[in-house]
Design a protein that fits this description.
Length: 279
């Protein structure tokens, strides 16, 4: 009996140790668009919820291990398109959740990769930006599909126009080759689960202060709220096309950025997080 108990304790220890090893430590990448900024005082304080940001390879590869792509030429920073508004965007996202909801959000985001390790499975809410510039191969697509099928949630944001849509859709095809991207209408539960979100509102990026336009590409100037659903009807990929919610979160405390757009962006975030936690 004692041997059996000892054996079970060893198995439990090995299981816990395996989880600890699978979860990568926090790392801040200095090559993001915001540069190397100081960590918040509570960056290492444990929390119940953490947003993960997907670090992907830019279309065309690049000098920086495949992640830089054409980032250096397009103003994304050394890390490339995935690092747009990084790391301050994720920190404003977390601060907004903590202020406006009861979600105990960690003050820093976790950068994850589709690198065949188990790390991504520790962070169920995954956020990716500028996905009109990403590239996913079949192996990466299979891991992302596994993540989503296990209950993960992917939100994509800040990509614009028909050309970027085609690049995004091509990458997503390696994730779900047999699933259809659907348009969401106002009646979807995700738009009213906590706040009422008016999907006719197009949330622009900071460029709005210069251009006065809520859209960035003439080829498709309208907000597109789309998704991929699993076999039970649960949204697993929430697609925010022709809008820039990330900028709205980051600049919501800037008096120059219109409050009406920032309010919608925060409502969307709260709804998506609540939906992911409850579905």
């Amino acid at each position: 009996m004692r041997l059996r108990t000892l054996f079970l304790l060893i198995l439990a220890f090995l299981g816990i140790w395996g989880v600890v090893l699978a979860q990568k430590p926090f790392k801040q990448y200095p090559g993001g668009q915001d540069g190397d900024v100081p960590l918040p005082p509570d960056w290492d304080k444990p929390a119940e919820w953490t947003v993960a940001r997907l670090r992907y390879r830019d279309l065309g590869g690049g000098r920086f291990g495949g992640f830089g792509g054409f980032g250096g030429r397009r103003g994304f920073g050394r890390e490339g398109a995935w690092g747009t508004d990084y790391p301050l965007g994720g920190r404003h996202l977390a601060e907004g959740l903590r202020r406006l909801t009861k979600v105990n959000a960690q003050s820093v985001e976790q950068v994850v990769e589709l690198d065949a390790t188990d790390d991504i499975f520790n962070w169920p809410f995954l956020y990716a930006v500028e996905v009109g510039r990403w590239t996913l191969n079949e192996k990466e697509g299979a891991q992302l599909r596994d993540f989503l099928n296990r209950g993960g949630f992917l939100m994509v944001d800040d990509f614009h126009g028909l050309d970027e849509w085609e690049v995004f859709a091509e990458g997503l095809h390696n994730v779900f080759p047999d699933k259809e991207i659907v348009d969401l209408d106002q009646s979807e539960a995700i738009f009213g689960i906590l706040n009422q979100v008016d999907i006719k509102v197009q949330v622009p990026g900071y460029q709005y202060l210069r251009s006065g336009r809520t859209y960035e590409r003439d080829s498709d100037p309208y907000p597109r709220w789309r998704a991929i659903k699993d076999d039970k009807g649960r949204i697993v990929v929430a697609i925010c096309h022709n809008m820039d919610l990330g900028d709205a979160w980051e600049y919501s405390d800037d008096p120059r950025y219109p409050a009406e757009f920032a309010i919608v962006a925060h409502r969307v975030l709260q709804n998506y997080v609540t939906y992911d936690l409850s579905h």
